[in-house]
Design brief:
Blueprint: H1 20-27, H2 33-42, E1 48-51, E2 57-62, H3 63-75, E3 83-86, E4 89-94, H4 98-108, E5 128-130, E6 135-138, E7 150-154, H5 166-180
Antiparallel strand pairs: 1-6, 2-4, 2-5, 3-4, 3-7
Helix pairs in contact: 1-2, 3-5, 4-5
Length: 202
């Protein structure tokens, strides 16, 4: 797939469903992939708990900050892997191993929760990094019917999606934190409607 540097961020699109290949990739993380797929065939609107650390890690960010990270990744960077919103958090699917490495990179760069960063900007808010030994609840494949609190913004659409590593997410988090001091504290009314065009994803 081509680079997503110029991928449009279209507020008019609807949340899309996971493809069959994307569902197979998600299910591959489960202890019993066939059982997970069978559940989704019977109840495509059902969320499911999946383990991290093998097929993917997940970085969970506060929703507004997560959207800012995602905007940077699609507007200025390589795009993203699958991304979901679940109960007020943004779930960014990342390469396995990211959950272990990202916190230390943030501390090394002095962008951790203490917010030092040379006093130049605010801190990156706490990011919950889920890796080996952790599990996350993901929205169901039928994202369009899951409701506003559980939906896919970038739905899995292939059995081997590109996933960002810790360096990409560090870059996006730092850019989002720097931008946060330059924008209004009042989000736009349609901010929650933004989804991303995956046709030009990396």
């Amino acid at each position: 797939m081509s680079s997503a540097h110029n991928a449009p961020l279209d507020d008019t699109l609807h949340v899309t469903d996971v493809t069959s290949d994307g569902a197979a990739w998600l299910a591959s993380a489960a202890a019993h992939p066939r059982g997970t797929l069978a559940l989704w065939e019977e109840r495509p609107e059902a969320p499911v708990v999946l383990p991290c650390g093998s097929a993917f890690d997940v970085v969970s960010a506060p929703a507004v900050f997560g959207r800012r990270m995602l905007d940077r990744m699609w507007g200025e960077g390589p795009g993203s892997g699958p991304v979901a919103e679940f109960r007020g958090r943004m779930l960014l699917f990342a390469a396995a191993g990211t959950a272990q490495r990202l916190p230390s990179l943030l501390e090394w760069e002095e962008w951790g929760a203490r917010g030092r960063a040379g006093g130049r900007t605010g801190a990156v808010p706490p990011l919950l990094c889920h890796g080996a030994g952790d599990a996350v609840t993901v929205p169901p494949p039928a994202g369009a019917s899951a409701g506003p609190d559980s939906r896919w913004l970038v739905a899995p659409d292939t059995r081997r999606p590109w996933l960002p590593g810790p360096e990409v997410l560090l870059w996006a988090a730092v850019r989002a934190a720097r931008a946060a001091v330059r924008i209004s504290i009042f989000p736009s009314a349609d901010q929650g409607a933004k989804v991303y065009d995956v046709s030009r994803r990396r």
